[in-house]
Amino acid sequence: LEEKRTLHKYSLSLKKFQKLSLPIQRRVIRRGAEILEPRARGLSFERLEEALEVWRLQRKGPRDLGFGLSIGVNKQELFIRKSGSLSP
């Protein structure tokens, strides 16, 4: 999986993500969130499912994940972005 990481952003290809199985898609989202914010380990299943719907193009984004993170789609790139806010 070709992922890109910076201090404030985690991203990957929409096409590659769509080829993954559902459990792996969930793990990719959770891992990307935890890379940017270790406290995101506490990401609720409901937020994870909302994020999954955004990345599967079933719901408009960006969406707030909590922990100062948002998730969205920009053209053919999926991303999790860290904002300046540290509140969950």
Strand content: 25-35%
Order of helices and strands: EEHHHEEE
Biggest sheet character: 5 strands, antiparallel
Query: Structural class from helices and strands?
Result: alpha+beta
Could you give the order of strands across the largest sheet?
A: 1-2-5-4-3
Number of helices: 3
What is the terminal-to-terminal distance? Answer: 28 Å
Tell me the total number of β-strands: 5
Report low-confidence residues grouped into runs of 5 or more: none
Radius of gyration: 12 Å
Give the overall pLDDT as a whole number.
Answer: 91
Shape: globular
Q: Roughly how much helix do the residues carry, as a percent range?
A: 25-40%
SSE blueprint:
Blueprint: E1 3-5, E2 9-13, H1 14-18, H2 22-36, H3 45-55, E3 63-66, E4 69-74, E5 77-82
Antiparallel strand pairs: 1-2, 2-5, 3-4, 4-5
Helix pairs in contact: 2-3
Structure in a nutshell:
The protein has 88 residues and is α+β, with helices and mostly antiparallel strands. The protein contains 3 helices and 5 strands. The chain has a 5-stranded antiparallel sheet with strand order 1-2-5-4-3.
Structure, described:
The structure is a single chain. The chain is α+β, with helices and mostly antiparallel strands and 88 residues long. It has helices at 14-18, 22-36, 45-55; strands at residues 3-5, 9-13, 63-66, 69-74, 77-82. Strands 1-2-5-4-3 form a 5-stranded antiparallel β-sheet. Strand 4 (69-74) and strand 5 (77-82) form a beta hairpin. Helix 2 (22-36) packs across helix 3. It is globular and about 30 Å long.
